[in-house]
Design goal:
Oligomer: homodimer
Number of strands of chain A: 15
Distance between the termini of chain A: 29 Å
Structural class of chain A: alpha/beta
Largest interface: A-B, 38 and 37 residues
Strand order of the largest sheet of chain A: 1-4-5-15-10-11-14
Amino acid sequence: MRQKKFMLSEDQIPKQWYNIQADMPVKPQPMLNPQTREAVTQEDLESLFCAECAAQELNQTDRWIEIPEQVRQMYANYRCTPLVRAYGLEEALGTPAHIYFKNESVSPIGSHKLNSALAQAYYCKQEGVTNVTTETGAGQWGAALSYAAKIFGLEAAVYQVKISYEQKPYRKSIMQVFGALVTPSPSMSTRAGKDILTKMPNHQGSLGTAISEAVELARVTPGCKYTLGSVMNHVTLHQTVIGLEAEKQMEMTGEYPDVIIGCFGGGSNFGGITFPFMRHNFSGERNTRFVAAEPASCPKLTQGRFEYDFGDEAGYTPLLPMFTLGHDFQPSNIHAGGLRYHGAGTIVSQLLKDGYMEAVDIEQKESFEAGCLFARAEGIIPAPESCHAIAAAIREAKQCAQNNEARTILFCLSGHGLIDMAAYDQFLAGNIR
Amino acid sequence: MRQKKFMLSEDQIPKQWYNIQADMPVKPQPMLNPQTREAVTQEDLESLFCAECAAQELNQTDRWIEIPEQVRQMYANYRCTPLVRAYGLEEALGTPAHIYFKNESVSPIGSHKLNSALAQAYYCKQEGVTNVTTETGAGQWGAALSYAAKIFGLEAAVYQVKISYEQKPYRKSIMQVFGALVTPSPSMSTRAGKDILTKMPNHQGSLGTAISEAVELARVTPGCKYTLGSVMNHVTLHQTVIGLEAEKQMEMTGEYPDVIIGCFGGGSNFGGITFPFMRHNFSGERNTRFVAAEPASCPKLTQGRFEYDFGDEAGYTPLLPMFTLGHDFQPSNIHAGGLRYHGAGTIVSQLLKDGYMEAVDIEQKESFEAGCLFARAEGIIPAPESCHAIAAAIREAKQCAQNNEARTILFCLSGHGLIDMAAYDQFLAGNIR
């Protein structure tokens, strides 16, 4: 199980994020105010988000956005993350493909989510915000935000999807160690939660519902802003640090990826790894394939419709032009809680519509088979979300074996699964079919 | 929460382990065969351990032992581990002390245990062994051995202390993902287990009991060797990679530690971080203090007696000259399962007897207070075992604050606590007093 790890020195950690909006051949359509049906303005967004994030959200001109020095310092605590040649996995698959993964699981929180949490918490603090709210599924984002809030001296309130709160109690505990207030959603603490529970007392929660609650709390709490772990443009912007590092690290390998894969919930990890590479496709210089791996039980990219829809269940957010299953879609209780979201980011939706990327859907059983194979071959137990990217990578690698084709595959290992072992238990016991 | 991380390049990862036995002013007394009361020979040890580990165990002459190339390659997957200046913790304590920690939690298994698991599994494979057995407390060692066995193509059977098996189900699942057979101990699968359960049907297990079971299984299984996660000289030898790296990394800081601290179960993490530095005390070149932090509920170093005792509950092991609470001592069910052991390694015991090191005992509540403070200041949730080292470091740092003394403190963060969150839950709920 020899691996080969490619690392950057601290001064090679990117100093700017890549804003793909500046380069997109067709820009995303505007978000709309649901009352007026007019394009949402920065001012509108500032009622919810901190000003800098609101500005980044709508910025379609600046290709490079500077990473603040204090955020870069915090990045340096765990970045660069390793780019790893997965010899063990290649051998296990008997494939001529060269498989690389970008290992975001080494962050102290165990996933890529910290890349944006640090940025959002930093900007909030700079702007005099005292409290932040958010929602979380599996808890990866909630843990990251709790951590970042603690570091920058903010109070954090997190609504965690009820089924994940119960399935993954350790992530709740992590958030609490970092001082966050964690509430299972839907809850009786908000109007949105009460309305849902009145209609459906046994509602298991969803990201859409939790977003409604977190947004409402931010709206009614002075000094409080809402933060988000995926979907929005500025979140994906912060995650481009992944792809920018990976680009430099791939140069060190002497290879260039033929296909790049990320699991897909709202799009931030997928966009993070792919967007910096995609700009070379826009320019015609490269012809890389980009594959989003989504769960078969929540297939917005492969089976959803491109239309204006709310980002949350209660309809508090602007209308987003995106692939969606409908904002009242109730995803089944798969273990990859971070992928249980009805919609997709507007940038990614536009790119998919315009043929710059592909999507595949993965059954839960296939995802855990892939995760176990990867763990045994590479020694890292992946998060259930990341298992979807691995499964898609394995499909590609098997195809290479069939065609005897030595393609170069890169995927993002978005997080480790050490806190998701109950899910692996279920799989090993044969309870995931 | 600015940190400063000191890293070595891959070619600076040590090529040799440091064998402190070669330099000890007074060598450890021999282990004895309990029947004959004669010194245990390498041949005796080989009935249980692979030949190379047996040889290393008794080697009192070679100062440097080469790390096999394949083990070094596996080390390179996660080493060097960061040496971190803990500015956040210093600030939180208002201390003039400079606090550094060696972060072994970044290994894919989450603790330092992999350093020896890889070596032991490698040697077993080289010698034609097909199966390995071991015991584990909290599961850190068992997870590491399961991982290493999978990598080198061995079958692993792990006896996990029953109370930890129940308190920390995720570590059992991790071992199972890596293909190990995990049995809660005491079990009915061995004579030793049956005897204990017959006398005490509700026995919660202890490392001493689990060792008896693993040793017995190794003895009755053809092609099977026993492996151990701490206590023995060869295990601590493999862990010296920690201190050897730390020595080079401390050079990069321009400082030299005044005091070095490790938590203490059997001694491998403590010896791993301290022994390479201790050689400079032997030579008179330095006068560093070395502090072992043990749990108040299992205080072999601070309250045990130095005498010959068995390493396990049933009396299967040789007699070891060590500080012990008696091999039938029943430690209370603290969360730091890795520290629930009645004895101490023979090298460390001799060093303590001869005044080359100190020991302190830490109450469980103090350990978790320290762990939470550290998590909030440095962003890493420490394993309950590591919390003991942190607590001892905090005591030192507070003393520095009182005396306005800028001492340099180094401690080993032996592992992260992401799989021990149930323990933090108990602490946050006020149930640990």
